[in-house]
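Researcher: Last one for today. Full complex below.
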Amino acid sequence: MTKIIPERSIERLSVYRRVLLQLRDADAAVVFSHELSKHAGVTAAQVRRDIMHLGCMGVPNSGYRTSELLDAINTFLDAPESQRAVLIGVGHLGLALLNHFSGRWRWLHIHAAFDTDAGKQDTLIRGVRCYPLSEIGRIVREWRIDVGILTVPKDAAQNVADRLCAAGVRGLLNFASLRLQVPEGVYVENVDLTSSFEKVAFFARQGSKALDSSLPCDQAEAVNSVEGTQSH
Amino acid sequence: MTKIIPERSIERLSVYRRVLLQLRDADAAVVFSHELSKHAGVTAAQVRRDIMHLGCMGVPNSGYRTSELLDAINTFLDAPESQRAVLIGVGHLGLALLNHFSGRWRWLHIHAAFDTDAGKQDTLIRGVRCYPLSEIGRIVREWRIDVGILTVPKDAAQNVADRLCAAGVRGLLNFASLRLQVPEGVYVENVDLTSSFEKVAFFARQGSKALDSSLPCDQAEAVNSVEGTQSH
DNA sequence: GAGTGTGAAGGCCTTCACAGCT
DNA sequence: AGCTGTGAAGGCCTTCACACTC
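Model: Here's the assembly. Have a good evening.
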């Protein structure tokens, strides 16, 4: 049944949603694809193409109704019932993510954290309780956790991933700088900070070449940066 | 003059390098594409294709000489003279990155940090001195900084990016959850934690559809009992 | 006129498959 | 036999261009 959708479209829909939330707060009742395009750093055609996956929402000379589009994205991206995540490794990066994610969405929530440091265990961090690693299996199973966020040192990552997968998570967000081996059916998104940094450094150097032969520009299409995305 | 190379290849070369460093430490004198492939999570053909960009290095039935391949990647990825970066926003995320990057490479180094918090200013954090934001322009210009790492709240991000670009950086690593507007020739790599998280959640849900039959040795795969509560 | 929805074209990247080497 | 290097094929995604709508 699954309509297949490009991974990149999912990422962009997430971006559009945040732009739309801001627009709605600014009382913008309608929005055009070229406006979204500007804020999201992609072409207008791309925006319309992505929105196609939601079913058609727009009105030809009037753009999209902000709240309607927002609802459609919510329905599409979010689970019908909320999803549960855990975070393993409460270092600076783990703390940053707890700060960033905790309490932000009701439909996608970090339910527990894990760390080897006994000093952190049983404490509340940003409203999230911290447990020893030995509890991973039990808690993931009992609470039916869907997603694991790995912010552990690379030497520990595979072992933790194995435990999470054995306990039934279906997705991993991996910040450790190695590629995890996981069973079929488990989705892994790698956020590789080292690669990202080295990539920026590389293209910062190359960048001078990129004197793009610009279009006969009928109008301000711009989006004048070279653009990357992470992910993976 | 630039040989054009896929962005993804750059990312993967960065991954291969780390794998090779470990292999070299394990005294592996040679390495096959299928070995790299396994550790990097891509196909062997992809590995060979990426290595093509470096010029040919391998010996048909003997694989690649580890140190030779490593040198070639270093030469390709790294600047002939070292590149300099600064980091703006010393919150948890900024600290995590300082920890992660500082002193790790001599050819790519974070030279200064910036924060609005006066308590952090003039202190040394992981060997990196912290300055007030007002110093950005001066320091970036004087030290000829190439890359800026933005770990500031989203409301501050565009303003900081403008200052960095005006002072001459050629690349930005942006962790703020919005798309920056930058002048032509400045490369932006977005690391969008929100998108990544939402993407994992989405595909973790979708993944269940891919119930590929016949996974032999798979025993009790959790998610047992109640199923009505969770479907799509 | 101004914007959306979308088939078709195009481009980038990955995979295939096999020649060639050792 | 086993592995690399690489043209060719394929697939995924983006962009173009235009019919259609208000």
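The longest helix of chain A spans residues 7-25. Confidence is low (pLDDT under 50) at residues 208-232 of chain A.
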